[in-house]
Amino acid sequence: MSLRKLIVNKTMAALAVIFTVFSSANAFAQEAAAAATAKPVDMGPIHKSALFYVLLFLLLCLFIAIVGKALKVYELTRETQGKPEGINWDTVNAIIFALFLVVGLYGVYWEYSVHGSMISHMQEAASEHGKRIDEMFKLTLIITTIVFILTHIVLFVFAYIYRYSAKRKAYYYPHNNTIEKIWTIVPALVLTLLVLKGFLTWRSIFYKAEDPNNRPLNIEVVSSQFLWDIRYPGADAIVGKRNYKLTTAINGLGIDFNDKNSLDDLLADEIVLPVNKPVRFTLASKDVIHSFYMPHFRVQLNTVPGMQTYFEFTPTVTTEEMRTKLNDPKFNYILLCAKICGANHFNMQKNVRVVSEAEYKEWLSQQAPYLTNDLRKAFNLPVVAEEAAPAATEAPADTTATAAKVELDVKNQLALKK
After folding, report:
1. Does 404 have pLDDT greater than 50?
2. Most CB atoms within 10 A, among 35, 225, 313, 390?
């Protein structure tokens, strides 16, 4: 009887009438204003506005209320004539349950056929551990989909078959040990399988044995609102220490240059990785919690103020190879922040490139050192003489000096960029 109560509800009918009067008055006012200005009104994009759909919903409510009142009159007429109830509302509700099942199952099919392509849009994972994560995701999706469909078929079919009927009496069935064992043991086994697979996958990522012949490349990434600072090691292959207490205007990352490993560190404006080489990211944050997220590599880990987190993985597909696979010459891997960290969160991203070992070494040799002469003076380190720009024979002396100064300023800005 719930549907009947809904459509004959007096409050709904009253609200619908009030809204209809208000909408009519508003429409008349708009027509009068349009006539006064004598300007054509473009009604084309009206269906794109939220108000259009609100009005459509309220119109539907009004229609239901009108139908409800008509049915109420019909029922009262039959009652005054001494006739039995004209509409079996239990059957109506059962039919609605059955229709809801059909529409719902079609909705599941539609989601898989239309939005399901979003799952495969990433194509294959571009890292070793990413393949195991994809397998775990697909297994979980298959199991949960099967359970979802079967349970809902049983739910709505039972609601239809066992609807109320005056010709039969409900059977009292309070307990069944066999059924309870089945619906307890089977889900427990399935969940145990999923949890164990997830646990083993997690351990394979974060607790892997280090190969002394193939040590990972260490890269430090520090997040802040709203950018990523990337520091590569120098010739010693070790990223130096940080100390937030050393953070100044010229030492934005708080690098401790008393640590000799920091002296040759490099500052980069993008992440470049050698293919098939393990990479270990050291992650930190300068302000709030961010999330280090590279979807194509199936990498995501929070960067937390006051502590360091780590993520190690091996990229397996170069940028050029992925462009060929996707037939997209403009494709690039990307680093994003997966936490809503502030107003410019959407713009917090960095380009990521996976290249060959030779290309990586060539790119690394072109990166600027973090340690500038200003930092050397602050930490009482020897100052390195800057190389002067070569003088052009055809240019006057003052132009040459200006060009050299501009080039030096550009280098310093790149090295000091936070």
Report:
1. no
2. 313
